[in-house]
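Build the 3D complex.
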Amino acid sequence: MTARRDPAGALGPAFCRRPAEDVARGLLGAWLVSTIGGETAIGRIVECEAYLGPHDPASHAAERIGRTARNAAMFGPAGRAYVYRIYGLHWCLNVVTGTVDVPAAVLIRAIAPVEGMAVMRTRRSARPELPDSALGRGPGHAACALGITGALDGHALQRPPLLLARGQPVPDTDVDRGPRVGVTRAKDWPLRFWVRAHPAVSRR
DNA sequence: GAAACGATTATCT
DNA sequence: GATAATCGTTTCA
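Done.
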């Protein structure tokens, strides 16, 4: 149990400094360990999407947009969090990749609860009949279940209250990829990765 | 300063 | 399947 939270198992800047596409694939199976609010909640990443550099028109840091107050974290060092609010009501968590001044990130689209289901249910205001697998299904849900808000924008993911751990790697035979969800530009780029047939993956 | 839209989700039919 | 909720960010005047 203690080993799960061992910082030695953390995925650091070296892991995240690679191209977003590679990091996204590598993040499948990794753990997000949240101790936000003093409550421990752990989620295993089962779905995520890569947003490449300025040449990716779907990115919040696409060349036509440039650096803004919102996307500033994407221009920072790899291994930090980029958290933004979507549709005025939900928070979404990204892991920053690439190098300083080159904006790229991986959107965490779904997590499977590993520990802390009780606090996840409270945060989600989940009905009792909702299965555990639905607690972190979808980017807004995943962030909500882990207690993530805009306060963590720019947070280094190698230390509490939110860190990335190596978790349980997923073999290539269990990984599917396809177009990203909800984007209108570059809609056919196959940059969404997920664990095949996993119940916590969104839009199955 | 005003308007449109969005890397979504809940709820209703 | 369709639509409302809800507001920060971007874009355009």
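Chain A has four helices and nine strands.
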